Structure formats: C-alpha cells, structure tokens
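We give its fold:
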Amino acid sequence: MLWVLWLQMNQVSAQCAMCKEKAKDAGSAALGLNAGIVLLMTVPYILLFIAFRKQIIQLYKEFRNKKVKA
C-alpha cells in the first residue's frame, strides 16, 4: 500500500499558499519541499489506520454486506 502512495507523490501538490510562494524560485528545492510535506502528511494517516484497523475493517465489511443485500 505504501508504494501506491509513493507513486502518487509526484502528482500531489501539497503545498500551502505560503510554502508555495517561498519555494517559487527555489527550483529543485520546491520538489523536495513538496515531497517532505506529502511524507509528513501520510504518517499520521498510516498510524491512525494501524490503531483503528479492526474498526475500519469491520465498517468496510458492514458496508460491503449492505451493498450485496441491496
């Protein structure tokens, strides 16, 4: 799953307006800044998924069963 996020990192623009303005003339530093922001953004989501994986999987199964019955 992490490799999918890694592949999508080049397409994601995670810079806020202030960061984008600061890195406007930085060239390759802007790419590094963007990669760092995306990396820092994904870590909390991964930790939350690990912490609540049982509840997430249970919710997914309930949703899937409702969809099959309908």
